[in-house]
Every structure is written in C-alpha cells, then in structure tokens.
Here is the input.
Amino acid sequence: MVTDENGGTRESAIDDLARIEGACLDKEALVRLAELGAACERLFGANQDIEWALSSGTLSLLQCRPVTSGGRT
Here is the structure.
C-alpha cells in the first residue's frame, strides 16, 4: 500500500525481489514498536490489539484495545 496523490492509499505491485524478501522495518523502528507495545501493555494490561502507523519516520499509535478473540484472557 502506498499513499496516492489525493491523500488516500492504493495497492502498488513490487517487482524488486530484494524489497519483497527484505524487512520492511529497520532495527530502530522495530525497537520503537516494541517499546510502544510494552507501554500499551503497562497502561492497559496484557493481550492488547495494537494498531500503529509509521510515516516519514514518525511512529503513531492509532488504536489500542483488549484482544477479544482467540480464547486469550
């Protein structure tokens, strides 16, 4: 998914095998994401469904709620 010129999103095919097989997040982003997940669990308890976005280097929490399926409590 990529942003389009109107501010929405669209699907875009990737023909570069290195991009397909490579990691989409670098180490710094993964560390920040793990920290965000840990902070959500500290604040709201374990088993959170966390929605996030990374845009232009900024990690944003979009939504956090308890997991409600899969039999986890």
Observations:
- The two ends are 33 Å apart (CA to CA).
- The CA atoms of residues 49 and 67 lie 5 Å apart.
- The chain has one domain: 2-66.
